[in-house]
Amino acid sequence: MKKLALVLLILIAVSMVAATQEPSLYVTTLYIEKVYPTTFGYRIDYRRQNSLMLATAYLPLEWFGGPTAKARLVYADDRAVPFINIFWRDAEISHVVLYVQRNMNHLSWGRLAQTDGLKARFDLEAPEFQF
Question: How many helices (H) and strands (E) does the chain have?
Fold first, then answer.
């Protein structure tokens, strides 16, 4: 009986410690105005949080695909898309999920001219977002 009580006390203590720890993964959603697919990746123009101003982010094509990918692309037929979910772990971006319209003729898709400096914009170590 004493062993059972001791095990119960240990389980209660462990569960109390686990309940007081903050979750390590947070998510931020940004609503996108336009998605520009290129041969180097995706340029997205999105609305800043609590603002009407637009900002631009570049997501290199190398970030998409594979088991350890930094980004994932999800096609949908929904009025809520396009948007992007940014997942944070320990104050750093863990990964992003880009939700886009399945129909490439949708107004949210744009075309971007291939300029000389375009490739350099996609040469990033980590995503850069303005909030």
Answer: 2, 6
DSSP secondary-structure letter at 117? Answer: T
- CA–CA separation, 42 and 62 (whole Å): 11
Q: Cβ neighbours of residue 88 under 8 Å, at least 6 residues apart? A: 25, 26, 27, 28, 94
Q: Tell whether the model's pLDDT for residue 127 goes beyond 70.
A: yes
What mean pLDDT is reported for the chain?
A: 85
* CA distances from residue 97 to 5, 74, 123 in whole angstroms, order as listed: 46, 7, 19
Measuring CA to CA, how many Å separate 1 from each of 6, 8, 13, 29? Answer: 9, 11, 18, 51
pLDDT, tens digit, 9 for 90 and up, residues 5-23: 554 455 565 555 555 566 6
